[in-house]
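tool_call: predict_structure(chain=1)
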Amino acid sequence: MSLTLPGVISDSATAMCRREAGYHARSSAKPPDADVRVAPPLLLDEIGARLSGPRRHRVSFVGVESSVDPVALRDARLRMGLTQHELARLIEVAGGERISRWELGSSAPRPEILHRLAKALNVDVANLLDTGGPADLRRLRWTAGLSAPTLAARAHVSVPTYVRWESGRTKRLPARQALKPLAKALNVTVEVVESAIVTARANASQAD
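tool_result:
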């Protein structure tokens, strides 16, 4: 019979605590190719407001609303004669079930994985995106394969500022000089960026 003195943790108890901590760390880890869950879109400016508050939480902006066309994705895969499992192996994601969810529209690939899909399916990224009306900033960002925080950093603006531009929650067009780094990061002209912001503003007005 072993005795444990008050205030002293036994070796076995210490080992058990370490195993438990390791289990929770593994359980909370997020796989690098995790899907974007498609849900009713949140207002991006509301997310920006949260970021500007005293408590900052990590937010996945690409998951706010997906631009991927599930039907276009499925059609492109079938044209290549690939099964869902074969396509999953080509783009290095886990299992054909993930491709199935993307084709059903219940979740969507992140922008960087969307580029892998386009390469594997031998199509342009734009062919896998929704094609309703003129391109807004969100579609340009997805085409470039960039998250909102990454694009904001390359455009030399704060994330909340970029979020306002993308959501169309800005009263006036930003100065052309401020848009030049953004256009460069998106590999488009300043005129295209201005048009995308105007489209985002129009979409926001219709949603109100």
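agent: Confidence is low (pLDDT under 50) at residues 1-21, 23-32, 39-64. Proceeding to next step.
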